[in-house]
Amino acid sequence: MGARSRLTSVVAAGALAAAALGAVSAAPANAAVMVSGSTIDAAGNYVEGSMSVYSTAGDYVGNYVVDSGTFDIPLENGSYKLRFYPTPEYSPEWYRDKADEATADVVTVAGAAQTLSPWTIERAPSVTGLVRTADGRPVRNASIRAYDTTTGDPVGSDSANRDGSFRVGTTAPSVKLVFSGNDPDSGDELATEWYNDKASEAAADPVGPTAAGTDVGVVTLAPGGSISGRVTNDYAQPIARVQACSNDGCDYTDANGVYTIEGVSTGTHQVAFYDEIGEYYGEYWNNVAFDSPADPTPVTVAPGQAVTGIDPVLTLKPAATPNGVDVSGTVRDQLGSLGIGYQIDVMDTPADPRDAKVVASTYSNRAGQYHFAQLDRIAGETEFKLVVRTDQAPREEGDFLRRTTWSGDKLGYDTAAVITAAPRTLDFTLPVSGGVSGAVTSEAGGVPEDAWVSFRDAENNTAGQAYEFKPDGSYDVRTLWAGTYTVQFGGDHHVAEWWKDALPEDATMITVTPGQLTTGISAALTKDVKAVERPEVAGNAWVGKTIRLDKGRWNTEARSVFTYEWLAGTTVVGTGPSLKITKSMLGKKVTGRVTNDAGFAQGQAVTATTPKIGYKPKVKAKVSKKSAAITLKVKPLKAKKVKATIAVFEIVGVKKNGEEKTKKLGKAKIKNGAGVVRFKKTLGKGKHKLVLTVKGKGKVGSGDIRTRVKIKR
Fold first, then answer.
1. Does any domain span residue 95?
2. Is 220 strand, coil or helix?
3. Mean pLDDT, to the nearest integer, of 612-616?
């Protein structure tokens, strides 16, 4: 379209404010007014994207988000052309349904807001289909990439939805598709493949996108292949801690020299073997040195195939005797195992620890030993700190972590012991992590989507998490340092809970021990939001008084919104956490209802019903050792209308849960505003705390009245 001058979008604040207030007066000269509209597809679905606005002179005015298929653009008087950039499955176009700027319809703004007719956006040519595992499960978030058949350039991509469906939009006339993803339950990598069950782009079947969407049907991803073998030396002895790598990934050999590279894609691979410790020469399969002009022997993997027998024999390098050793030692973990192949760095000791740097480095050998012979030759340095780094060290499946450790078996640079270049032995003992295993399931059956487990240390810091689960919901975490933890479980559309079936304040601690697995830490999560302690009404239901609603305790609260209702029978008589009792409520009983909206679900719970609403009783009690003479007055009732039953309790202590512990002394009927309660047991000398529980009749209210009395000899 040629060069355009870029102008700043003008939004008149006054016009926007008037629009927000629903003003209908004419806009002042040069003020912006709203041009609104919607973008939909042929099926009536809203289309999102962005809208660019240009003047008819070709000047850029601004860009605006089209959210949920609607747009509101503030424009001054003038003539404009609009270009819509939709999401990839739709084709960009000019207003209205035009292919270029020259033919685009003009939108004229002349002082009044306007709403354009719905704008129908055409779908871009696309390819659709479904991605499934070999046993038919949808591969959500599978990657689908399209490449131009002629040029090989990437021209489109998509991620599969929850049901495995995808749509790749592209304007290329012919494309080749490649699919990859992970098992939706185990997370294991599936075999990458080109359409249709092809191992390479060259062999892939081309697909022609269409406006309706060319359906390639179900694409089945087989489990990823694997390459495995055993690495030995010239004497047929296994070599531990050798790295074996294919085009897709790597694995380290175990103590028996065995490795398995998993998640290997279909096709041919070049397999290489490296010894980071430096004791053996590396090579390609099959017996091809890294510096050899000969071609390595390729390893071919079919979809899901486990290729075995890739067993190299590595040659030992000549070992030179070190020329004077400054520092040497052995690395072991706290369980006594040798530390093989750990990187050991020597750090200098500047005045500011933040300036410390590595001045020498080596690896512990297959006997766990290391040495440095050059520290006395490092210019300007006489003191050092050593560190055994474990963060990059390989860890076999089912093994535990070893902790990075500094000289003096300290955990950080600042506290590490300082050494000199004088010959000495410095051994290291590495702390070992422990682990926790269990399962997360749903009370509704199966395993919650996006399940997780979180471990909190004694200071409530997140110390570890589990996100990978087997199809039965089981998990296994082996990266927790020794100590005590609380454990929280959660999952999509489920209520999170703490071990053991608890709220946060009631969580049971677990203990993690080095090199051991704490088992059985499991949870069956519910989808139901519910009260674990019933809501309660606080206060007496007396005319003129206010009662309040305590929400109780719920199985989820942290992110919830609570609402409150008051019911007389089934009729809502008030909302909010409190209710003022009015004369119109006389004789009714009230119930509180609490709704907990947790977002993914909501639950309700109700209180016990209050006694009948009445007028406040005023009690006078003359208490002796054996009885209490009660006078009950209730405004505005005459004495002959005052009838009730009254029970007297003594507060004698506090229960473990904090509630008061009471003892019933006696009970009596009140007639004409008076009565005597005779005690079952004589009150002793001294002070007593009493609760007088009134159960009124007619318009007499009910409730608890507290008093203190002193009994003399």
1. yes
2. strand
3. 97
What CATH number is given to the structural domain containing 139? Answer: 2.60.40.1120
Distance CA 245, CA 263 (A): 12
The confidence band for 626, taking pLDDT boundaries of 50, 70 and 90, is very high
Which distant-in-sequence residues (6+ apart) come within 8 Å of 10 by Cβ? Answer: 32, 74, 76
Give dist(CA 164, CA 197) in Å, integer. 17
Are 234 and 313 within 8 A, CB to CB? yes
Q: How many domains does the chain have?
A: 7
Helix (H) or strand (E) holding 15: helix 13-20
Query: In this predicted model, what pLDDT tens digit does every residue of 449-490 receive, in sequence order?
Result: 999 999 999 999 999 999 989 889 999 999 999 999 999 999
Going by DSSP bridges, is the β-strand pair 590-597/561-568 parallel, antiparallel, or unpaired? antiparallel
- Dist. CA 179–CA 303, nearest whole Å: 13
Which of 507, 525, 543 is a domain's end point?
525
Rounded CA separation 31/559 (Å): 43
517: tokens are 């697995």
- Confidence at 106, pLDDT banded by 50, 70, 90: very high
Q: How many Cα atoms are found within 13 Å in the side-chain-facing hemisphere of 348?
A: 15
Q: How many CA atoms are closer than 13 Å to the CA of 562, on its beta-carbon side?
A: 20
Q: Residue 209 burial (CB < 10 Å; 0-12/13-18/19+)?
A: buried
Same domain, 450 and 493: yes
With cut-offs at 50, 70 and 90, classify the pLDDT of residue 29.
Answer: low
Domain stop point among 314, 339, 360? 314
Q: Residues 263-280: pLDDT tens digits?
A: 888 889 999 999 999 999
Give per-residue pLDDT as tens, 547-589.
999 999 999 999 999 999 999 999 999 999 999 999 999 999 9
Is 179 contained in some domain?
Answer: yes
The reply to whether 310 falls in a domain is: yes
Q: What's this model's pTM, rounded to 2 decimal places?
A: 0.75
Candidates 2, 6, 14, 3; CA nearest to 76 is 14
Do residues 194 and 251 share a domain? no
